[in-house]
Design a protein that fits this description.
heterodimer; A: alpha+beta; 16 helices; B: alpha/beta; three-stranded antiparallel sheet; 54% helix; 14% strand; globular; PIG-T (chain A)
Chain lengths: 673, 580
């Protein structure tokens, strides 16, 4: 133990020495940059640097950049604590991004170093990482995660005005609206589960926002409305379109992911905007929340023209309270920003199975973010066992780690960006994956996936079909299905059928909240048991309502969107599914699969639907206006004429001469004879 | 017929803004690759003796598409002798190109039928080449479905029914796995040669539905851009509208369209899409003896251009006309011009009915004054009216149900095939309807009265007017053909003792069957492929069997309409002629 601690101290010292020269330069560059472009979020964080003693601030910052100091141990213990807590309180809801916690498992050893504090630690930490997973279809999935933790309480009376790494714009929002948890995602594209497997973090196409408020909030709806407006400003998105007609309060599908055991749905608000289009204007404010913006570290790769030359783009922000330490007497706030991108083999890879950081992002890595305490790149090499090599990875590193991600044990090669020798003589790191053979391999089907479509034709009625596939060979498991349908589709809830394998499958729990016209949507939640190796079909018929003519969108013939349905499930893990693994494992492990691997939590989103409503011909009002105006003009004119004219008995008219004279007189404007 | 004159025709124009400018730069250059796919496909097709499903799946998959298959089977009510099929079993293969960053809500379909023999191999080849080219592009906003369907229309129907999860025709098909949201538009491709001289567009769909005019305009715009000769009804457009040959040319083009639309048959695979509110056309490559030919690259560019335009579509096609007639590809007659023509025809019926009404009330009034006689006359009149109407409709029901139901019996007793049995039974019932005891009122109430036939005629006229009016709203051409033939004769027939034969012959000449026979004759005249009367009779028999098959396979409404409504209505008039 003693030797270990000594070793760490030495390492820290060398890290400080090493870091002193280069990152200082970065820091000064950054300061110039910031002064050039004043930014509300960042200048405040930088303000701390300016006012304080420059050097004394940088050194702890650098100390953090070492891979093995205490902070990571803390983060890890807190993370694990969360998972334990969650396990005890709500079984169906572990932490969604358990990936990070799992990845942190490798730091378990450092737990013991809790007490030793060689340098004074700041109250906030920043960690960044990038996971690269080559997909069997030839595409490649990259997932960035930036995590800021701040050991402070934003709600406890005192006003927090000093922000360092945590973005002030978000911090103020959280304290003003008494937000307990905030999850927001912007996604362009649909995650192709059958081709790509499960994502590390799933999100529906468009925008999704769900918020848990503190139980001290009296007027939740008011706070929610104001919060959406503020967030739409922060993220340059049309979140202000969230109103009561697309907000629901799910009773079971969404539970808090952070600390706290209040699960009263009155404090939960959930909304989806399937129509939201995500583009660079949403990416820029998202990047500005990062401590290093896109100046250093992994964020330099975030170049928008490449990020949007992809098949899938999903960016998210999650804010939640977590434990400060294992004792959990105080809470700290955790902000995770994630960005998942799938690059396409045919469109962006020129059909060549060769991926590199430069090819994907047209940048290479040159340095870690100087404010980051961890900065790593993980490359998933699970499908690349040593015997039969599928692809070559260069530069080769020996550090590997095994983690259970989404019920599957996966092996990652780890690039620690804080070790300077990684960058080589050219001062740049370009990770390259090169396939040996060129044909694609079929992905084994994920255990759970879903599909959704509208059936029928014509503009009067229709049917929403949701297919839930369980491809596990022998295990049944329950899923929680949540459907939100706008009010203008009148659901016939008596036609709701749930069928699997041709037989009726009665849901064990149904929560249905009918819609109110122009006020709230339908909310349908149910718990369905999926038999092994089956397709379960949930159907419900609807009638299309005729809207008022001002309620149509500017492009009514495009159709109206129905947001994705959400399927939350505890899925039996792939490890447990593998029946042939008995030869490799010791016998004692196979009888009872270990609890952490037996099942895992997954949230799957179905595709949104586009439904055409009966639409009037909008040139009709114009015609009607023209016609009515004409009729009114003629009618009114003649009536007015009749009412105002004085009638006189006409004298018997004279001969032709008199009439002619009258015509001439009228032309001249003289009264007739 | 004056509709073919210039003042009645409008120039076609694009209504949809998204389709407006042709600012798409086509970059498709893989004509050679299309031909090599064609060769390979033809070889595989010969080897498997049908649709090479596995090869198609493998090829599409290697091009990066999500590939699914759908198998289906259908038993026809009686064997189809034209296409030689009875129990149909097949597989559709389709690959979905997922739009990058698309949420799977909208899609466009490109379909090519896998036909018998060596037909249409080029279409499949070009489809595959386009698929692999489209896959490498980043700009798609809608998913694209590449569909190769077996057994032409039956395959398309099976695919569409499975896609929309409906079952209307008793098809059995495997559940569908991959979908791509609401289909916005579809193009069907038929190509049977490596080079083409012109491109023909078929627009008439099931029950005379037409695609939005903008889609036809889009086809024309890209033909102009790529320089491909384009035709409609196999006829080029001419610019000399004012001259007599120009007029007859456009008239014959329009008449062809009227006849095809009136038949209610889909003129290509696209025809079945229209029911689902999916705008679709079929494009046929024609290889004639013209000198100048276009290669696959040009055709590919044409389709690429159209697809990129469809990809830009923000809303479904809705701006332009859905009801029109086309005397040439650049000109159309809108519903506003042709409906009045029908209106005037229908006015004859209404006026005639009014006349009868007045006569009836005139004759009733003195009778009422004369007390008891009126009551005697009016009380049985309802019965006398209802009996012939019911008998006529029962005949219609028999005509609708019996041919298919009684085919077994017919085969046992007569040396005919099933198809012949069905057709001949239909004709027999049709003719037998003429000989039915029409004068039931004589049994019921003694001699037929003047009032009796007048009331029956009044009812029949109004019935016919309503029927034709409804038909015209749905399928103008059919309604118009029936109106032109039936209205003048039916309006003026009377049970005259002297000219009974004359009236009878006139009525038979305008009966639906005769109209069909004449239409077939006219059609063959118009496509410059004249037939003799005997051949025409053969075609007539085929048309009847195909009509019944269309109804059972795709839900075409022509046969039930004729059997259940038009024919009974016509029988009522027949009844009037022989009123005693």
């Amino acid at each position: 133990m003693v030797s270990h601690r000594l070793g760490v101290a030495v390492l820290v010292a060398t890290a400080i020495l090493l870091a002193e020269s280069e990152p200082n330069r970065v820091e000064s560059e950054k300061l110039q940059d910031v002064s050039g472009s004043p930014d509300a979020v960042f200048s405040d964080a930088e303000g701390g640097f300016k006012t304080g003693d420059g050097t004394s601030e940088t050194i702890p910052g650098q100390a953090e950049t070492h891979p093995h100091p205490i902070e990571t141990g803390q983060a890890d213990s807190a993370g694990r604590w969360v998972s334990i807590e969650v396990g005890s309180v709500r079984v169906e809801e572990p932490v969604a991004d358990e990936k990070l916690e799992n990845l942190q498992a490798e730091f378990d050893l450092q737990d013991a170093l809790q007490q030793s504090k060689p340098v004074p630690t700041p109250r906030d930490h920043f960690a960044e990482e990038l996971v690269i997973r080559p997909l069997l279809s030839g595409d490649i999935y990259t997932n960035f995660q930036f995590r800021t933790r701040w050991d402070t309480d934003l709600h406890r009376g005192k006003k927090v005005s000093h922000y360092r790494l945590f973005p002030k714009s978000l911090g103020q929002v959280i304290s003003k609206f008494s937000v307990r948890e905030l999850h927001i995602s912007f996604t362009q594209g649909f995650w192709r589960t059958t081709q790509w497997g499960q994502p590390l973090l799933s999100a529906p196409p468009g925008a999704e926002l769900w918020v848990w408020f503190q139980d001290s909030v009296a007027e939740v709806d008011v706070a929610w409305r104001e919060l959406t407006s503020v967030l739409s400003g922060i993220f340059c998105a049309s979140l202000n379109f969230i109103d009561s007609t697309n907000t629901v309060q799910p009773s079971a599908s969404f539970k808090p992911m952070g600390l706290g055991n209040v699960t009263d749905q009155r404090f939960l608000r959930y909304a989806e905007l399937p129509r939201e289009i995500v583009c660079t204007e949403n990416l820029t404010p998202w990047k500005k929340l990062l401590p290093c913006e896109s100046q250093a570290g992994l964020a330099v790769l975030l170049k928008s023209e490449k990020l949007f030359h992809s098949s899938y783009h999903s960016q998210a922000v999650h804010v939640r309270p977590v434990c400060k330490d294992s004792a959990c007497r105080e809470t700290s706030w955790e902000l995770s920003q994630t960005l998942g991108i799938v690059f396409d083999l045919h469109a962006s890879g020129q059909s060549k199975r060769e991926w590199s950081l430069f090819k994907m992002f047209s940048r290479t890595l040159t340095e870690p973010c100087p404010l980051a305490s961890r900065s790593k790149v993980y490359v998933d090499v699970t499908d690349n066992p040593l015997g039969e090599e599928l692809f070559d990875l260069s530069p080769a590193v020996s550090l590997q780690t095994q983690v259970v991600v989404l019920g599957d044990r996966r092996t990652f090669t780890v690039y620690d960006l804080l070790t300077p020798e990684l960058y080589g003589p050219t001062c740049s790191l370009n990770i390259l994956l090169k396939w040996r053979q060129q044909e694609s391999v079929d992905m084994h089907r994920p255990v759970l996936h879903t599909e959704r479509f509208v059936s029928g034709y014509g503009l009067q009625t229709g049917e929403i079909n949701t297919l839930l596939y369980n491809s596990h060979p022998f295990r049944a498991f329950p899923v929680l299905l949540m459907e939100t349908v706008p009010w203008y589709l009148r659901l016939y809830i008596h036609t709701l059928t749930v069928q699997s394998k041709g037989k009726e499958n009665k849901p064990s729990y149904i929560h249905y909240l009918p819609s109110k016209d122009r006020q709230r949507p339908h909310l349908l939640e149910m718990l369905v048991q999926l038999p092994p190796h089956s397709v379960t079909k949930v159907t419900v018929q609807f009638e299309r309502a005729l809207l008022k003519w001002t309620e149509y969108t500017p492009d009514p013939n495009h159709g109206f969107y129905i947001s994705s349905s959400v399927v939350s499930a505890m899925v039996p893990s792939v490890v447990a599914m593998d029946t042939n693994s008995t030869e490799e494992c010791p016998l004692f492990t196979t009888l009872f699969p270990s609890t952490e691997e037996s099942s895992y939590f997954v949230r799957v989103y179905s595709e949104p639907l586009l439904v055409n409503l009966p639409t009037p011909d909008f040139s009709m009002p114009y015609n009607v206006i023209c016609l009515t105006c004409t009729v009114v003009a003629v009618g009114y004119g003649s009536l007015y004429n009749l009412l105002t004219r004085t009638f006189q008995a006409e004298e018997p008219s004279g001969g032709l001469a008199k009439r002619l004279a009258n015509v001439i007189r009228r032309l001249r404007g003289v009264p007739a004879l | 017929m004056g509709l073919a004159f210039e003042p009645f025709m409008l120039r076609t124009y694009m209504s949809e803004n998204a389709m407006g400018s042709t600012m798409v730069e086509e970059k498709f250059v893989f004509g050679e690759r299309a031909i090599s796919y064609t060769r390979e496909f033809a070889g595989q097709k010969k080897k498997t003796g049908g649709m090479p499903v596995d090869w198609l799946v493998k090829t599409m998959k290697s091009r990066g598409l999500e590939v699914y298959t759908q198998s289906f089977s259908q038993t026809l009510p009686f064997p189809d002798e034209v296409k030689e099929r009875y129990m149909v079993r097949g597989t559709n293969v389709y690959g979905i190109l997922r739009a990058p960053r698309g949420p799977r809500t909208e899609s466009i379909v490109l379909s090519a039928p896998c036909s018998e023999g060596n037909n249409n191999n080029q279409a499949v080849g070009l489809l595959l080449a386009l698929a692999s080219y489209f896959r490498s592009q980043i700009y798609w906003a809608k998913d694209i479905i590449f569909l190769v369907n077996e057994h032409d229309l039956i395959g398309t129907e099976a695919w569409l029914e499975a896609y929309h999860d409906v079952n209307m025709t008793g098809l059995r098909s495997s559940p569908m796995q991959g979908r791509a949201g609401a289909i916005q538009a579809a193009l069907s491709l038929e190509l049977s040669s490596d080079v083409i001289t012109s491109m023909d567009v078929a627009i008439e769909g099931l029950n005379g539905q037409l695609p939005n005019l903008d889609l036809v305009n889009l086809f024309y715009a890209f033909c102009q851009k790529t320089g491909v000769l384009c035709t409609i009804q196999g006829k080029l457009q001419r610019n000399d509208w004012n001259t007599l040959p120009g007029y007859t040319h456009s008239l014959s083009t329009m008449l062809l369209m009227v006849l095809k639309q009136g038949s209610g048959r889909p003129q290509g695979d696209h025809g079945l899409f229209l029911r689902y509110h999916i705008e679709a056309v079929t494009m046929r490559g024609i290889n004639s003896f013209r000198q100048y030919k276009f290669d696959m690259t040009t055709v590919g560019k044409l389709i690429e251009g159209m697809f990129r335009k469809l990809n830009n579509l923000l809303e479904r096609f809705h701006q332009s006309y859905f009801f029109y007639l086309m005397p040439s590809l650049t000109r159309f007659v809108s519903i506003g011009y042709y409906m009045p023509a029908f209106g005037f025809l229908a006015l004859i019926l209404v006026l005639r009915a009014l006349d009868l009404w007045v006569q009836l009330s005139d004759s009733a009034r003195p009778l009422e004054d004369g007390a008891s006689e009126g009551e005697q006359d009016s009380s049985p009149s309802l019965l006398t009216l209802a009996t012939p109407v019911i008998i006529c409709h029962l005949t219609g029901l028999a005509l609708y149900y019996l041919p298919v139901l009684s085919q077994e019996m017919a085969i046992q007793h007569f040396p005919v095939s099933e198809t012949e049995a069905v057709v001949l039974t239909a004709i027999a019932i049709y003719v037998a309807g003429l000989a039915l005891p029409h004068n039931t009122h004589r049994v019921l109430s003694g001699a037929g009265t003047e009032r009796g036939w007048r009331s029956l005629k009044l009812f029949s006229l109004l019935y016919l007017a309503v029927l034709l009016g409804c038909t015209t709203l749905i399928n103008f051409s059919l309604g118009f053909i029936l109106a032109v033939t039936m209205i003048p004769v039916t309006a003026f027939i009377q049970p005259h003792r002297s000219s009974k034969v004359l009236h009878g012959v006139a009525l038979i000449l305008v009966s639906p069957a005769t109209t069909l026979l004449l239409s077939i004759y006219l059609y063959h005249e118009l496509i410059e492929y004249p037939v003799t009367l005997l051949e025409c009779w053969q075609h007539f028999l085929t048309a009847v069997s195909q009509g019944i098959l269309d109804h059972h396979l795709y839900g075409s409404l022509l046969y039930p309409l004729i059997a259940l409504f038009i024919y009974p209505c016509w029988l009522q008039f027949w009844n009037i002629v022989f009123w005693k």
